[in-house]
Amino acid sequence: MATSGYLDHALEGARREYSTRNPRSLKAHQDAHSHLPGGNTRTVLHVDPFPMTWASATSGTLTSIDGDTYIDLLGEFSAGIFGHSEPRIAEAVQVALSKGWNYGGNSQTEKEFAQKVCERFGPAGIELVRFTNSGTEANTTALGAALAITKRRKILVFSGGYHGSTLVFPMALMKGSTAPCMNLPHEFVHAPYNNIPETKAILEGLPKASLAAILVEPIQGSGGCRAATKEFLHYLRGVADNTGAILVFDEVMSSRLDYSGYSASQGVRGDIVTLGKYIGGGMTFGAFGGRRDIMELFDPSKNMLFHPGTYNNNVLTMHAGLVGLDIYNAGEVDRLNKLGEDLKTKVQQILIDEGLYPDTIKRASSNLIEIDSLQGDVTVQVDEDSKSQLEHLPPMFITARGSMLNVRFSGPDAAKWQALYYHHMLTKNIHIAVRGYTPLTLCAKEAHIDNYANAVQEFVRMHKSQLISKS
What we know:
The protein is of the alpha/beta class. It has helices at 3-21, 23-32, 87-98, 108-121, 135-150, 171-174, 196-204, 230-243, 262-265, 292-295, 315-327, 330-353, 358-363, 387-390, 414-427, 446-470; strands at residues 54-58, 61-64, 69-72, 128-132, 154-158, 161-162, 168-169, 187-191, 211-216, 219-220, 226-227, 246-250, 272-276, 286-290, 369-372, 377-380, 396-401, 404-409, 430-431, 437-439. A hairpin with a 4-residue loop joins strand 15 and strand 16. Helix 1 packs parallel to helix 15, helix 3 (87-98) packs antiparallel against helix 11 (315-327) and helix 4 packs parallel to helix 11. The protein is globular, with a radius of gyration of 22 Å.
């Protein structure tokens, strides 16, 4: 059977089995259409034929309304790094609730939390900080500030970038797609991620002194755990210095990979750094901070940059975040990264042993795949914006840094393979993102990553002939 026909048949069967196994979730989804468009209020959670409905969660597991319990290897896309019932955070929230909420004023806790954030992420460039309600809000405010400060209009962004629901830059958009787009109406300049020569050429074509900001994720989360090279980050730092543009590092996800943020581990500082997700203890949270001279413009007594927000300093998040940063300390950062590296090694070895990597490695150019002969490790380094290089990708591969991992597929049927892989993991009672993203939580144990690796191996062995034939 041709690969496409095989894949359609396999995916149809997987979805049928999923529907049979989850009748209550199916009914809940159907009923929700009465009040929610598509039965959904968060697009990324949609799954064909319908998303699971959860009844409860504890520690590192989720239980569906159909009564099945799953190992959670998604961790709310990094926001849930503490798991679902961390007792110290629960206690902090209870303390906050016992003192009342919605003050409409300042609290001592927000001051203590701000100090802790600045001390921790100072090496990344945060000298002063302001809080928001989400990473999206942090990024939109950072861009607004950059335009106001520089009095320029253009913002450099990169392929595969995701900075919130109104700052999304998939390859289709970069290539001129006319599909409806809800991005903010800034003057975005699109460049390929991790590609210095092409980015340089694009910048050279801009009018002089027109670039207000550079917005970049040191590691792309939604973009597939693609890590910027150290050289690329330092190149962008040089561009900002030479042009007067403001360099904004979106570390909403990547900050989890080093105690002071991933950019700090690469020896580069942002003018503004945005944070979110786990730093608020898993609550609704975002933040932006940076150079003192920039951030002091938000001083209300100076009446320069205006930044309101009803729940910026809400007492629940302030208490949870204060405790959360203590829990996710330097030791836990290292431990979780090591667990992620172990999982990456296990998955890569499976792909090597089962024959999905070797032929690709022989054909690939050196800038696509690096082989560390001392460690026996294979790391796929992908410039996914180049058509010629895409042809050399393995049919199934993993991109990862520390505790952020993403099993992925290549080729025209990649989305179908990804969906089949997702449904396979559910049959093993493992919950991941539809796109294969697995940011580990502090509840993850060796047994969990062994279960996941075994499930990966089973998937590969079930579909190996078709995966290899497509490559």
